[in-house]
Amino acid sequence: MSNVKTTKEVKTMGANEVPQRQGNGSSVSLADAFGNRGAVVLTPKSEEEIAEILQKANQEGKSVSVEAGGSKRGYGGTKEHYDYTLSMAEYKGVVEHKVGDMTVTVRAGTTISELQDFLQEHNQMISIHPNWPDQATIGGVIAANESGPKRLKYGSARDLVIGLRVVYPDGKIIRTGAKVVKNVAGYDMNKLFVGAMGTLGVITEVTMKLRPTPKYESLVQVSAPEEKLLDLKELAVSIQDSIIEPVSLELLNPTLSKKMMNREAYTLLIAFEDVEKSCRYQEEWVYKHIPKGADVEVIHQQEARNFWQTFKDLAPSSLVEPASGATRAVVKIGSKNMDVYEIMKEALDIDAPVRIEAHGGLGHGISYYILSGSEQEVISAIRHLRKAAEEKKGYAIVKHLPYHLRNQVDVWGKKTSYFFLFEGIKRTIDPKNTLNHQRFIGGI
Questions:
Q1: pLDDT score recorded for residue 49
Q2: Nearest CA to 361 among 252, 255, 243?
Q3: Radius of gyration of the chain (CA)
Q4: Of 312, 346, 378, which one is at a domain's C-terminal end?
Q5: What is the CATH number of the domain that holds 236?
Q6: Helices vs. strands in the chain: H and E counts, helices first
Q7: How far apart are alpha carbons 70 and 140 in whole angstroms?
Q8: Which of 7, 98, 108, 438 could covalently link to 41 via disulfide, CB atoms 3.0 to 4.6 Å apart?
Q9: Residues 347 and 382 in one domain
């Protein structure tokens, strides 16, 4: 593995170095707490080096985990140790930017903030807004199919990818999709790798569709007490039946609303991004349909941007020590869009005295629950939320949890009826389980 930087311990990885915490009477790094790490860290700087590493590991029967920023180390995985960690942290940078075509090709180790800053110079952006953009990389975001609170209008990462370069576990390099937006040739291979948690190949380059930076943005915050929660639901229905087009229709529970806006009430976040005249028109439409007894506040431009920046850093990261010392978890729930309201009410019935900060999209049905408490309180709350989601024909997966607790609760939930397809694809592409083994659903 020529010219590849090697580091013997994860906890001395430089950019990924993390603070220490006390656990069971001894000093334990956050890297140890979340697992998904290799005894040796390899930091390639070229695609050829990545292919060489994987080919050699595959031939020798070695296991490899993949990361860049490391912010998702607590997401999935029932295998604590690997032989190697393949760090993409130094494989970064924009490869090609076609301003007129509004596409960009970027290396996987580039952080979201670095990419957005580059595109901002051309009044363009990638329309995904994941947590911790200063640490999260485009490769990790694509591998996990992240999106953000503006998914209602802009879609998830899967919707924006038009092409990938991927290194298979045996070192073979392939290209999927194309570098043009209109591509209708055959099966969309991109979707095989987006959201696969790095179990099928190492994404090295991503080509994505871009959008122009909005000329104006505003955020309408509509707050109401619990007895008026049904009115907020009806407002959300009215918005979706209307001609207005919000980028976000996010419902916050009182705990999160109190933290963000000092209002202990359910709050509906209705965001607009367009030219100023359009945003103002849509704000006026909302004003005319506000439920009686609800409180309304509208913020614009930089104040709205600051709000969303704070919002992105709400969820815990495996790189950041919790200030309280409590166990923290993130549960992602997928349901019918209006069941977000019902499941959020169900969370009030959790017996354990766990703190819950929740928000959910009343347009797309994706919700996030940030849990904080003792270990057993958090585990109990996860099980309660999963039961509530499954009763509504939805699902619940755990996006963040320390390693030893991930072995107490199935982070992915029940296997689907088509799970055998996942197994077959993994077995075909990675028969030796070289890459990110046990990181994905069902221990794949």
A1: 98
A2: 252
A3: 22
A4: 312
A5: 3.30.70.2190
A6: 15, 21
A7: 9
A8: 7
A9: yes
Same domain (yes/no): 127, 177: yes
Domain assignment present for residue 21? The answer is: no
pLDDT band, very low/low/confident/very high, at 8 (cuts 50, 70, 90): very low
Give the pLDDT confidence of 187-230 residue by residue, as tens digits: 688 999 999 999 999 999 999 999 999 999 999 999 999 999 99
For residues 338 and 372, membership in a common domain is answered with: yes
- So what's the pLDDT on residue 5? 61
Single pTM value for the model = 0.91
Using CA atoms of 162, 135, 111, 127 in order, give the dihedral in degrees to the nearest 10: 50
Do 204 and 114 belong to one domain?
yes
Instruction: Give pLDDT tens digits for 122-171.
Output: 999 999 999 999 999 999 999 999 989 999 999 999 999 999 999 999 99
Q: For residue 385, what are the domain limits?
A: 327-406
pLDDT digits (tens, 9 = 90+) for 46-87: 999 999 999 999 999 999 999 988 899 999 998 888 999 999
Please state whether 35 falls in left (phi above 0), alpha (psi between -120 and 50) or beta.
left
| 8 A C-beta contact, residue 133 and residue 124 | no
Residue 192 one-letter amino acid: L
Residues 103 and 122: their CA atoms lie apart, in Å, by 12
Residue 58 domain flag: no
Task: Reply yes or no on whether the pLDDT at 3 is more than 60.
Answer: no
Specify whether the CB–CB gap between 60 and 434 falls below 8 A: no
What DSSP string runs through 142-191? HHHT---TTHHHH--HHHHEEEEEEE-TTS-EEEEE-SSS---SSS-THH
Q: What digits encode the pLDDT tens for the residues 413-444?
A: 988 899 999 999 999 999 999 999 999 998 89
Domain count, the chain: 3
- Ordered alpha helix ranges (H), 15-137: 30-34, 47-60, 112-120
CB 10 within 8 A of CB 70: no
Strands 81-87 and 64-67: parallel
Tell the residue number behind the tokens 């334990």, with chain if given: 28
Cα–Cα distance, 349 to 344 (Å, whole number)? 10
What's the length of the chain?
Answer: 444
One domain for residues 201 and 246:
no
Q: Could you tell me if 269 and 149 are in contact, meaning their C-beta atoms sit under 8 angstroms apart?
A: yes
The secondary structure element, H or E, covering residue 311 is helix 301-312
Of the chain, the end-to-end C-alpha distance in Å amounts to: 27
What are the CA-CA distances from residue 372 to residues 29, 120, 183 (Å)?
A: 20, 36, 45
